[in-house]
Design a protein that fits this description.
Length: 478
């Protein structure tokens, strides 16, 4: 069948007075074909009128498409079961031509961004060979919308803490920030609402104010609005990760950073330039970083357990053994875990992102050999006893060194004697008991009572007889 251009040429040559034989020879076409074009007097290519294979099954296809929940594989199976000789490829081709189960694609929009106007952020799960096994990791990426400069890193999860860690590192990579950061409707940043109505969490809003930008979210089901950051994910997964294995997190993220730098310095055909060259013009228009960028950390409060450890994310970290039972603040950053008591740092550990159910101990946090647990201070009874009678300090020390029972019971018994017996006989008995190294409270009490004699039991003066005689009736009643 002749194409449109050759049909136009036939009609033009015929209008110049050329014969059919000359036209056919010049265009290397059959003379009967030339005659048909001249008789049609039109350059339009006639459409072939052929009966489609699925035309006779049109109603059955519509019915089964609805019953099979829009699954064309099941529609084909049911048609074959009914005796139809229609291939699956013919069925899908027929459905496409007649708009069955086909959603027409709308033309994509184009977005143009000025230098320093917008940066786009998103995450995507990737399968990564890390440490000898394949794992699901979160890839975080940030792209400058104008220059297409890319920065990407990998994390074990993507919480609000890891989001701030990544963005801080990305801002240092770019040397500044754009005026807004376009995100999807993620709960990591958004407190409520979607799209233009979204409200960021106070924590993330304050984070944006520190670096001079605001968060913006695209409409629901409209990811093309941040297409700058959507496109690199497939390239990362099929290029950077393809055939690569990584020893640990440091190796993975260092090589990801080097890969981004290499890609940013390569020529992009759709840009007709290198992103790093476009960034040279955008860099002066970025918001400068603050003079001081604090370390990103999350704050936890823990109580030191009886073994001298704090529990965090299923792991245990040692602290000085003197802090058993104390409440401490734990600051978790990407690099380390720091323990603070009253704003003073008392312990520091490296943060191993993959650690689970492990115990980390530093030798200086344990007591030296032979020291054991720290001894407790004096009890309340001992403090009160020495307050009432300081001269008993030597006897109390000997009593604690050579106890004949529970220390608390012995001290309480001695405190009762100090409160009940005269001071001179008591001190005399204690002095004798200490000389003979007798620390039995029963024997001490007998010695004290022997010193008391009759002086302790003073009855006072006799009761004088009544001056008024008692009536005989009253005496009888008594």
């Amino acid at each position: 069948m002749l194409k449109h251009e050759r049909r136009v040429a036939i009609l033009e040559l015929a209008a110049r007075g050329q014969s059919i034989h000359a036209i056919a020879k010049a265009l290397k076409a059959d003379r009967d074909t030339v005659r048909k074009v001249l008789r049609a007097r039109s350059a339009e290519v006639p459409r072939l009128q052929r009966t489609e294979a699925g035309e006779a099954l049109h109603e059955d296809i519509l019915e089964l498409y609805k019953d099979c929940k829009e699954n064309l594989v099941r529609v084909h199976e049911e048609l074959v079961a009914r005796g139809a000789s229609l291939s699956y490829q013919a069925l899908t081709s027929y459905c496409r031509r007649h708009g069955i189960g086909v959603t027409p694609k709308l033309p994509e929009g184009e977005y143009h961004f000025g230098p320093g106007l917008e940066m786009q952020h998103d995450t995507s799960p990737h399968r990564v060979n890390l440490g000898g096994r394949t794992r699901n990791l979160q890839c975080a990426s940030l792209v400058l919308a104008h220059s297409h400069l890319v920065f990407a890193q990998y994390y074990p999860a993507f919480t609000r803490f890891w989001c701030k860690v990544f963005l801080t590192e990305a801002f240092h990579f770019f040397g500044g920030t754009c005026s807004r950061c376009m995100i999807d409707n993620t709960h990591v940043v958004i407190a409520q609402g979607t799209g233009r109505d979204m409200i960021p969490t106070p924590e993330m809003e304050a984070f944006g104010e520190r670096f001079g930008f605001v968060f913006r979210a695209h409409a629901v089901n409209h990811p093309d609005r941040k297409g700058r950051v959507e496109a690199p994910f497939k390239y990362l997964e099929n290029n950077f990760l393809a055939g690569r294995a990584f020893q640990d997190w440091a190796d993975l993220n260092e090589r990801a950073r080097a890969w981004c730098e290499k890609g940013n310095a390569s020529l992009k055909r759709h840009l007709h330039a290198r992103p790093i060259d476009l960034f040279a013009a955008e860099r002066p228009l970025l918001n400068p970083l603050p003079l001081w960028v604090p370390t990103v950390y999350r704050l936890e409060t823990r109580t030191v357990d009886g073994a001298g450890y704090v529990n965090l994310d299923s792991n245990r970290y040692s602290v000085p053994f003197e802090l058993v039972g104390r409440r401490v603040d734990v600051r978790v950053s990407a690099e380390g875990i720091e323990v603070f008591l009253d704003q003073g740092r008392v312990a520091s550990h490296a943060h191993l992102w993959d650690a689970r159910d492990q115990k980390f101990t530093q030798p200086e946090h344990r007591p030296k050999r032979g020291e054991g647990r720290p001894r407790k201070g004096p009890s309340i009874d001992e403090i009160e006893l020495l307050r009432l009678e300081p001269q008993l300090a030597s006897y109390v020390a000997g009593l604690k060194a050579h106890p004949s029972g529970r220390i608390s019971v012995l001290l309480r018994r001695l405190l009762v004697m100090v409160q009940d017996y005269p001071r001179e006989p008591l001190l005399k008995g204690v002095e004798a008991a200490l000389a003979y190294r007798m620390f039995d409270p029963e024997r001490l009490e007998r010695m004290v009572l022997r010193n008391v004699h009759q002086d302790y039991f003073v009855l006072g003066a006799a009761v004088p007889p009544p001056t008024t005689p008692i009536p005989s009736g009253a005496a009888h009643e008594r």
